[in-house]
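Notes from hallway chat w/ T.B., transcribed later so I don't forget. T.B. wanted the structure written out for a chain they're using in a teaching module, and asked if we could keep both sequence and structure tokens in one place. Agreed to drop them here.
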Amino acid sequence: MSNLAFVARRAALAAFICAFAVVGPADAAQEQVVDGVRHIRNPAEPEMGVVVIEPERMWERGDEDDDIMFGVTGTVLCDEQGNAYVLDRQLSEIQVFDENGEWLRTIGREGEGPGEFQNAADIFFSIGGSIGVMQLFPGKIVQMTTDGDPAGTYPLGHDGFVQMQRARLLDGQLLLAGSGNNRANGKMIRDGFLQIISPDGELGTKFASWSNELDFSTLRFEEIDLDGFSRHWTVGTQNRVFAAQDWNSYAITVWNADGSIDRIIERDYKPKERDDERRSEVKDRFQININGRNAEVLTEEYERCVNEIYPRPNGYIWVRNDRGALDPPDGILTWVDEFDAEGVYTRRIDFKMPGDIDRDAVGFTGDRVFVTKGWADAARTLGPGRRGTQDEEESETEELAEPLSVISYRIVE
């Protein structure tokens, strides 16, 4: 698409939604081809300005007056009927609620048998409409029906010790992100992949790969190696894959279903610099104890530019950057950057909701927003660096944490 076409289409869109947005001055997005790849280069400010949305509160479960109790929640899925499937990573179960918040059933449980799991990192809708549970380590995908009946395990296609992070359906197949881990001379070599794996365990198209080395003899680890891009990607409604591969740049690679790069979406952006207090907070989150010795985590100078990418039903994507996740303005719980199907930065959407972004987690799925109150406090007992800490320390932290609750909102524009 030429720059003139971009300008014409943007003008038409501006005329349509100007009543809903505070329109500010912004340069037009530019398309350039670099080494045969299209780059959509966006300015710092969105074309249509800032929109404030106040979602409609629907229900809350898990507060101190409820008979439902959560441990540490993770992903929330919604089916076509509006039922919500809430993964509890700590209790190794999935609580199912209808559109009005009424409890329907609990599916899954902790264990190693059919329909059982542990150390869950994520849930997703798998092939045939079943629920897939991504077990972090040892890597495993447990499948069950939406009623909770076991539906077998999905083959990973990789030998040895595999650590899994996330999976999504892509054009009727599973796209998986994980890493194969091998030890040698006191080091762990992690070879990561974002790759199609068939129901027969056959390895298909590889979209991306990476490798890093963890040296256990030094007890020093890089934050960027502990929080790789394997969690910062999604599949859109048009069978396109979106991934933020770099820590310090606002760049989203977009692949077609066949693995070819469609474009790279960029935005003029400088990540948030960390102060000493924030560095200390990050170090605490990655407390790692190996054989009774505490490891040192070397933190990054800046926050990660892109945290989460959420697909929208209309082919757009919402992107939550570091400031939207950590530093929203007063009265706003979080915000997202909206990009249209071409990759143009159209709006910044501020979500006016009660809460505390330092303690609460926010996630988007379809027309719903889920806020998990007290998530940060609860997650400290289950974070990726807590696997080697003392049991008595975790028990003390859990006793101090307030009840965790999940609130469902509907997005109304």
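Follow-up for T.B.: The CA atoms of residues 169 and 175 lie 6 Å apart. Might be a good example for the class.
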